[in-house]
Specification:
Blueprint (H helix, E strand, L loop, with lengths): L2 H22 L6 H13 L13 E2 L8 E8 L21 E7 L5 E8 H24 L4 E3 L8 E3 L15 H7 L1 E5 L3 E2 L10
Parallel strand pairs: 2-3
Antiparallel strand pairs: 1-2, 3-4, 4-7, 5-6, 7-8
Length: about 200
């Protein structure tokens, strides 16, 4: 594998994607490939010997042997929506998710990592909060609501189950930054090698 040639190709891809966005307002789907490349070159993570669903890379050092799923988001300066990660399949065999944050020139500025269990627990708490809010808005406190017939001044309390559809197992970039760890930054380079972070 000619690493120099690949680096040069990736550099041209960044320039092309950034220019295309500026000219058309549309996004070329290249950020995932760029992010995997950057994790490999900046943190020395490797490609799995055997392809496995949901697993992009294998960790080294503090994450030696751990199975990594890589996600990426480009931080466009005029974006109005709250960016979210793509779908997370918790049935997959991955151990950690890495989130690569790029600027509008598709240059990596930060890399975060979060453990599978941490992400799953965060989503469970979020769904639990949504359930409580939904119940409060629709039924009032403790599941009590006005009687459908009879004395309107009385209430009837019932047990109920509130179903909240799955939100496709996604999480916001802002939330990921809170529960994850920053392991690489263009300002400080490799934080792990400097002993600032260790794998949990």
């Amino acid at each position: 594998m000619n690493i120099y040639a690949i680096d040069k190709l990736m550099s041209k891809t960044r320039q092309l994607a950034a220019e295309y966005r500026r000219l058309t307002g549309q996004v070329l789907p290249v950020s995932n490939e760029l992010s995997r490349h950057d994790v490999m070159t900046k943190l020395n993570f490797t490609i799995p010997e055997q392809p496995e669903s949901g697993v992009d890379l294998i960790g080294v050092g503090s994450w030696a042997g751990k199975k990594i799923q890589v996600k990426s988001r480009v931080a466009f300066t005029k974006a109005k929506s709250r960016p979210r990660l793509g779908h997370l399949n918790f049935d997959g065999k991955w151990d950690f998710v890495i989130l690569v944050i790029m600027n509008e020139d598709y240059v990596t500025e930060e890399i975060y990592i979060a453990k599978k269990e941490v992400l799953l627990n965060s989503m469970k708490k979020n769904i639990s909060t949504k359930n409580k809010n939904h119940a409060r808005n629709n039924f009032g406190i403790s599941g009590c609501h006005p009687r459908e017939s009879g004395d309107p001044g009385q209430t009837k309390c019932t047990s109920y189950f509130v179903h909240i559809p799955k939100d496709r197992n996604t999480i916001s970039v802002a939330k990921f930054k809170v529960i994850g760890e920053l392991i690489w930054s263009w300002q400080e380079e490799d934080l792990v090698s400097k002993g600032k972070l260790v794998s949990s």
